[in-house]
Amino acid sequence: MYSSAFIFEPGEYDEQFYFLDNQIHEAAASVNGFLGRESWESIDGKRKNAIYYWESMDALKEFSRHPKHIEAKRQYTKWYKGFHVVISEVKHSYGDGKLEHITPNDRAKNS
After folding, report:
1. What is the pTM of this model?
2. Domain 2-110 has CATH 3.30.420.40
3. Which among 13, 42, 102, 108 has most CB atoms closer than 10 A?
4. Residue 12 CA: distances (Å) to CA of 1, 47, 94, 98, 102
């Protein structure tokens, strides 16, 4: 399993941003191997993080080549003050079992 975290500082959004943002989410969901998405915002609202989870690196790469994703990348300076992407391989995940999450609960497998 892999995750791609898109960390960014929001700028000014317009109608085109919201339209394209929705299309990107739909494009991600259409990729075989897409597992889900979650997002976070810093307490002060200055940074946001959209995390996508993928079954494989091939699925993540397929999404990265999607025309809507490429279109958004070309126009990012219109909507973001800056961004940083972190691609990670999920080796382990666990919890107390009371919170559902996209990643598997490794502790539940071993009990």
Report:
1. 0.86
2. no
3. 102
4. 33, 13, 37, 38, 30
